[in-house]
Design brief:
Layout (H helix, E strand, L loop, with lengths): L20 E3 L2 E3 L5 E5 L6 H14 L3 E3 L17 H14 L2 E5 L6 H7 L2 E4 L7 H8 L5 E4 L6 H14 L4 E5 L17 H8 L4 E3 L1 H5 L2 H13 L4 E5 L18 H14 L4
Parallel strand pairs: 3-4, 3-10, 4-5, 5-6, 6-7, 7-8, 8-9, 9-10
Antiparallel strand pairs: 1-2
Helix pairs in contact: 1-2, 1-9, 4-5, 8-9
Bound molecules: phosphoenolpyruvate and manganese (II) ion (MN).
Manganese (II) ion (MN) binds next to loops.
């Protein structure tokens, strides 16, 4: 096999079998669909506890929520920080959910890894090479989001940094790219799902929330992602989206919509 790519460990040429990441009883990259649901940001113990209850009741396996938020402007709400990690860990444990949260700097990798089951690298940090190198030194699973202007080659090279450091537990996340279209916040690149699965053995997760930025598009693009072969979804859901502390309320599903989405998805793919 001719390997002409600059990445190696991330390549399917190098590693023909699919990577399956096992966390507790959940397998990511196997036969079953993994759904991660929750708010953009952790806001309070009550908020994350109630959302965790609803995520679990709907049948999803992972609770999402940011304690550290990468905001475009410095005066916007930046997340509740380490306290949010504690709130989310408690909610996850109470309701029997795994947790995923974003880590933005190498200094916070250890504390985030202490409280969360999966660490998320945001689109703005896909090429934060110091962060990627640090994530290579631990074994916690990492969900690496595609930079909103990155090619598949750049994306897979970013994953390579983590793999090369010694952490094999990497999943890729398509979360939309910047195009000329302004109706949607980003353009969810559905082709990325099968293309990345051809180029790489790593699981591919789709984020239709940031990929569209519009609540009414989350359900159809979730289904489209599963039809395209996604191994999982990460979806924003909020009990009071109009009053959420980040601007992402407009793309957050109401709990009833999230529950209905889960019922619809069960018809398309087995969910563990
Ligand atoms: C998020 O998941 O809330 C987030 C900030 O995502 P992204 O990095 O894809 O914008
Ligand atoms: Mn968000």
């Amino acid at each position: 096999v001719k390997i002409s790519k600059s990445y190696k460990l991330a390549s399917r040429d190098f590693h023909p079998d699919n990577t399956v990441i096992k966390i507790g009883g959940v397998e990511i990259g196997g036969d079953q669909l993994v759904v991660m649901g929750g708010p953009c940001a952790v806001e309070s113990p009550e908020q994350i506890d109630e959302i965790a209850r609803l995520v679990k009741a709907s049948g999803a396996q992972v609770l999402r929520g940011g304690a550290f938020k990468p905001r475009t402007g410095p005066y916007s709400f930046q997340g509740v920080g380490v306290e949010g990690l504690v709130m989310m860990a408690e909610a996850g444990q109470k309701h029997g959910l795994l947790t995923i949260t974003e880590v933005m700097t190498p200094e916070y990798v250890d504390v985030c890894a202490e409280y969360a089951d999966i660490l998320q690298v945001g689109t703005r940090n896909m090429q934060n090479f110091d962060l990627l190198r640090k994530l290579g030194t631990i074994q916690k699973p990492v969900l690496l989001k595609r930079g909103f202007s990155s090619t598949y080659d750049e994306f897979l090279n970013a994953a390579e940094y983590i793999l090369a450091g010694g952490n094999p537990n990497v999943m890729l996340c398509e979360r939309g790219i910047r195009t000329f279209e302004t109706y949607t916040r980003n353009t969810l690149d559905l082709s990325a799902i099968p293309a990345l699965q051809t180029l790489s053995h790593l699981p591919v997760i789709s984020d239709p929330s940031h990929g569209t930025g519009r609540r009414e598009l989350v359900e159809p693009m979730s289904k489209a992602s599963v039809a395209a072969g996604a191994n999982g979804l990460i979806v924003e859901m909020h009990t009071d989206p109009d009053n959420s502390m980040t601007g992402d309320g407009v793309q957050s599903l109401f709990p009833e919509q999230f529950a209905q989405l889960m019922l619809d998805l069960e018809k398309l793919a087995p969910i563990c």
